[in-house]
């Protein structure tokens, strides 16, 4: 994707403001990125519409080109949607607080119960787990193992009491928690591989019996497009207050997060990132946004560019550009150092207004070359730097010796510089890209 976006960037680079065409071009790429991340199509459509709306009203940035600006808006919007209303668990005024887990079989509910218990304990709570999944033979035992690992008691039907009633177990667990003064009860429930009326009714019955303070919908981040249907069914059925995304350690890009958030309006509260109890954290919208967009490098660049290239510098630069004659080797060096400050050279060239003009001269330069170029320029006298025309053969020999490079390298630098200076003059002569500029070639 980064490659595709780079193409968009280069075609938009020199434009000064966010036009409809700029926005549309970038929006198309974002659309593909979201679909690749398995965000559901209707969600993508709504999201893109929202982004376009915001982009149209956006002020033009000095530091970013239009495509980058759109990406920035997309990222901000993603973070806002994913995290807009992050909230903590709702703690009951009269303990125990009751948390009920719901979701398909295999979503990660039982594992999550252990993780939650461990985490809650660290938060100073005294949790208890409840085995209200009596569907699968090993479900109770699985929860007991998890509870033991977390160091948290598990309430389960007495062994040998036959197949218990999950609603009854859940109800009795609350009484037990009150007696034993547990501050929080986490109820693990049964799921089916697909949505199923009987399973949903059981969840509803448990809910009605225990009146949970929070129902958490547990969803596997790998399910992709299907997350929408599942989330909708649970929303319409048992209903839920928050979402937990599991299996984020997999390679799924996590479009399910955006889909579920968008479709249900419920906040994503926790993230599960592995099979071990400690693979768990509160949900971080910014990380998720980055993962869905999969433009980590570009987002980093945007951040850095904004930090480094403040308005003052932009003004100083454009003043320089406006009087092409003044562009000296000193400026050339300064420019290159500024680009270096931003990060790996290849990624950054041309990202700032005006910088694109010297891109071709320095695009082949890697970091080591940059050091040599800096050394060459520093071996020049101030007069040579400000009036490079005077750098004749004997001066070149002296500079080469002083900086420990060959005369050929000095020659090549001087040539590059004159090319860059020529472009600066062209820029000063008119709007970039306009025909009829003086000195055009
Ligand atoms: P439940 O049916 O909803 O109770 O799901 P389980 O908690 O039994 O989890 C189903 C499977 O997924 C088990 O093998 C878990 O070890 C695994 N699992 C659960 N959460 C995660 C996670 O965050 N990452 C990974 N890699 N595996 C997980
Ligand atoms: Mg389970």
Automatic annotation (TrEMBL):
It is an enzyme of class 3 (hydrolase). The keyword Cytoplasm applies. It catalyses: GTP + H2O = GDP + phosphate + H(+). Its main location: cytoplasm. Residues 430-440 have a biased composition (Gly residues). Keywords: Cytoplasm, GTP-binding, Hydrolase, Nucleotide-binding, Ribonucleoprotein, RNA-binding, Signal recognition particle. GTP binds at residues 103-110, 188-192, 246-249. It is found in: Cytoplasm. Its EC number is 3.6.5.4. The keyword Membrane does not apply. Residues 267-280 form the SRP54-type proteins GTP-binding domain. It comes from the Bacteria. Belongs to the GTP-binding SRP family. SRP54 subfamily. Part of the signal recognition particle protein translocation system, which is composed of SRP and FtsY. Composed of three domains: the N-terminal N domain, which is responsible for interactions with the ribosome, the central G domain, which binds GTP, and the C-terminal M domain, which binds the RNA and the signal sequence of the RNC. Involved in targeting and insertion of nascent membrane proteins into the cytoplasmic membrane. Binds to the hydrophobic signal sequence of the ribosome-nascent chain (RNC) as it emerges from the ribosomes. The SRP-RNC complex is then targeted to the cytoplasmic membrane where it interacts with the SRP receptor FtsY. This is Signal recognition particle protein. It comes from Actinomadura sediminis.
